[in-house]
Amino acid sequence: MKARIYYFSGTGNSLALAEGIASGLGGELRGITWDEPESVEEGVVAGLVTPVYFLGVPDIVRRFARALRLGRGTHSFAVVNMGLRKGNALVQARSLLLGAGAESFSGYSVQMPDNSVVFPTREGEIPGMLEASRAEIDRIVADIARHGEGEGTAWSPLSSIGGAAMKAFCERALGFRDISASGDCTGCGLCARACPVGNIKMEGGRPLWADRCASCFACIHRCPSKAAGYRGMNRGTFKPYVHPAGTPTLQAPQVR
Fold first, then answer.
1. What is the pLDDT of residues 138-152, one digit of tens each?
2. What residue segments make up the domains of the chain, in order of their start?
3. Domain 3-158: which CATH class?
4. What is the 3-state secondary structure of the chain?
5. Which of 96, 148, 190, 209 would suit a FRET pair with 252, their CA atoms being 20 to 30 Å apart?
């Protein structure tokens, strides 16, 4: 099967799912950035693997998918990973991929450790979640291979309202997009290398965040000195999370 899987991942959950699905389908992986995507030719199955942000699809994934152009007769699928609830993420992914030209769609959700700094998954629950997610990959691959229907997708007004309220509070009150480094920063540059969208550059041994943050928190979770944080964050109390199979995007596109 010819398949192309687009993924967005900050701390490795979506990357691990995308790699497993690509391996099972014999497909190729493409990371999602702020750049415009290319078209997908006819006969190639197109997949979207994404985390759930605020009970929906992240802004960067939504922007990418809206510009995506799929060939005639394309079967599409989406896999969303969430800490607790998928909300409207699969409904949104379905609308985006069918709007891009797909003829059919199947959607799947996988519960994985939440990298939220506000509501993180308890450490004791992480190993079991990761083990279960690996089993889920096999189920998803088998269903995609036969163009199965996946899970049901039903719009939830409560998720829409709740997600919008959470997003507004976190971005405006807590400053999720207002990230900086404290005086504890050692200038190691790992945050800049780990940023999947190249939003961080090093100047004078200090990281500087530009204005295209995707709120994935890769920089915060990978900072060895816990110096990186958003404006309203208590930097000393959170416990970082990175998927055990995940690696930093060491060749991330750099800010110009």
1. 999 999 998 888 998
2. 3-158
3. alpha beta
4. CCEEEEECCCCCHHHHHHHHHHHHHCCEEEECCCCCCCEECCCCEEEEEEECECCECCHHHHHHHHHCEECCCCEEEEEEEECCCCCCHHHHHHHHHHHCCCCEEEEEEEECCCCCCCCCCCHHHHHHHHHHHHHHHHHHHHHHHCCCCECCCCCCHHHHHHHHHHHHHHHHHCCCCCEEECCCCCCCCHHHHHCCCCCEEEECCEEEECCCCCCCCHHHHHCCCCCEEECCCCCCCCCCCCCCCCCCCCCCCCCC
5. 96
